[in-house]
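Quick one, tokens below. Sequence please?
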């Protein structure tokens, strides 16, 4: 099928390239010329494992093209994905101005033939109908400009939220737990199902023993709500386990064992029960706030969601609290952070717990150093203030009074902690993700402090 994906952030670029890999002919549109140039050369503007390789393969096969020409993209696609950002406003609402600009632009360039316009961005509930209205406004503006009879254009809007995780975005796209399609048009839903048939590994793979990926086909608003509810549930699940961890800390129980014990109940499930220093990233904070805001708009006080956020806000400062318990005065102390990104296998620093930790350590007069497998090697390090980003963990540990494991990068499991301890002023480690081998570290002479142990 002919597809146009507008916006080449995490969602758009991964979707476009995966659709091309599955045999569709995709044009990816972005208004950032620099980015387009980079992508044409097969280079990914974001760090996502396997993405550059897949880009190069699909560029070579001619199934993906990159352009800044929206008109060409709209003319090409029978399915048009809107995948631009919806960043949070200071109020917690989503900023939908980029979606609006794209919807209007689509309206300006629509020509003959039926099109499906797909909301892939996480948009406020009710946006499907709003996008239809803006596209029609765009069409009317174009008609007023050019005069003449309106073109016989027909289109439907579909909400098709993505659930991909950064760091495993490609795997998730080919192996989703479900596909959600929201529209009042059966024709549009049918075309979307056809589009995904070749994308979803399990439905077209040789292994027919695997069950097909379920498709939830519903109305626009329900599809939009599914995205918010899923992310809010997962964030709440983590806040729940973090709250239990804090109680474990006080009563002398071990959250790792408790999480295992409750996670084996199939009604609870073992995933997303990893206690730590809180959730971050581009999705959870933004989506939970947006859902709280939507509820507020309708006069409903979403108390459980607000509590999930406040537990998380407190959790993000837990490492600081533990440092104070261990070191007492932080003024003049040197703290080394292992990891800066909000989670491993990504270069994303959006809403990363490390940022708040750095800010507060600075406020209390501590010197902060850090090593991160990606940030240390990239230009991102220059954008950070209040922290000295070192190129290797050994160098970073020099003179440190404590290390804080902030991000559970696999690499941190195999560091030479014996050599690191030699560099430190005192060998204290706060494991903010309960990730490291406590007894191995203790046998090297470390004082080990985890979360909820
Ligand atoms: C999330 C959703 O998983 C994905 O479906 C959605 O489309 C986008 O948002 P992502 O932001 O990439 O994906 O991160 P995810 O892997 O879900 O982790 C979110 C945060 O929760 C991270 O800060 C992570 O460290 C934290 N987390 C996760 C925990 O603290 N404990 C856990 O058990 C799991």
């Amino acid at each position: 099928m002919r597809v146009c994906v507008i916006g080449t952030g995490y969602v758009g670029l991964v979707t476009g390239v995966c659709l091309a890999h599955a045999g569709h002919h995709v044009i990816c549109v972005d208004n950032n010329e620099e980015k387009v140039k980079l992508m044409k050369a097969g280079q990914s503007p974001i760090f996502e494992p396997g993405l550059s390789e897949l880009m190069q393969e699909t560029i070579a096969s001619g199934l993906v093209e990159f352009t800044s020409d929206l008109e060409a993209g709209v003319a090409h696609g029978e399915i048009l994905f809107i995948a631009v950002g919806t960043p949070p406003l200071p109020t917690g609402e989503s900023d939908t101005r980029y979606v609006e600009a794209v919807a209007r632009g689509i309206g300006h360039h629509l020509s003959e033939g039926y099109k499906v316009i797909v909301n892939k961005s996480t948009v406020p509930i009710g946006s499907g109908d709003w996008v239809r209205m803006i596209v029609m406004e765009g069409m009317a503006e174009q008609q007023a400009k050019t005069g003449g009879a309106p073109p016989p254009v027909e289109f439907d809007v579909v909400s098709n939220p993505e659930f991909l995780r950064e760091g495993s975005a490609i795997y998730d796209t080919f192996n989703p737990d479900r596909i959600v399609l929201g529209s009042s048009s059966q024709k549009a839903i049918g075309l979307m199902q056809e589009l995904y048939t070749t994308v979803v590994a399990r439905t077209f793979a040789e292994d027919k023993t695997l069950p097909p990926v379920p498709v939830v086909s519903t109305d626009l608003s329900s599809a939009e709500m599914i995205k918010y509810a899923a992310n809010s549930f997962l964030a709440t699940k983590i806040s729940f386990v973090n709250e239990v961890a804090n109680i474990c800390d006080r009563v002398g129980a071990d959250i790792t064992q408790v999480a295992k014990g409750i996670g084996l109940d199939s009604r609870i499930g073992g995933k997303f029960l990893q206690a730590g220093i809180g959730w971050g990233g581009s999705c959870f904070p933004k989506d939970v706030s947006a859902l709280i805001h939507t509820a507020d708009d309708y006069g409903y006080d979403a108390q459980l969601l607000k509590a999930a956020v406040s537990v998380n806000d407190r959790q993000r400062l837990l490492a600081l609290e533990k440092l104070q318990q261990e070191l007492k005065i932080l003024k003049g102390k040197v703290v080394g952070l292992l990891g800066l990104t909000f989670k491993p296998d990504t270069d994303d620093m959006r809403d990363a717990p490390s940022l708040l930790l750095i800010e507060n350590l600075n406020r209390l007069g501590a010197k902060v150093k850090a090593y991160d497998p990606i940030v240390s090697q990239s230009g991102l390090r220059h954008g950070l203030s209040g922290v000295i980003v070192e190129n290797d963990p050994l160098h970073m540990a020099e003179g440190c009074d404590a290390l804080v494991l902030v991000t559970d990068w696999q690499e941190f499991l195999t560091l030479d902690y014996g050599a690191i301890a030699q560099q430190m002023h005192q060998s204290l480690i706060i494991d903010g993700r309960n990730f490291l081998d406590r007894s191995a570290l203790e046998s090297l002479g470390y004082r080990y402090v985890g979360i909820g142990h």
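The first helix runs from residue 10 to 21. Residues 246 and 452 are 5 Å apart (CA to CA).
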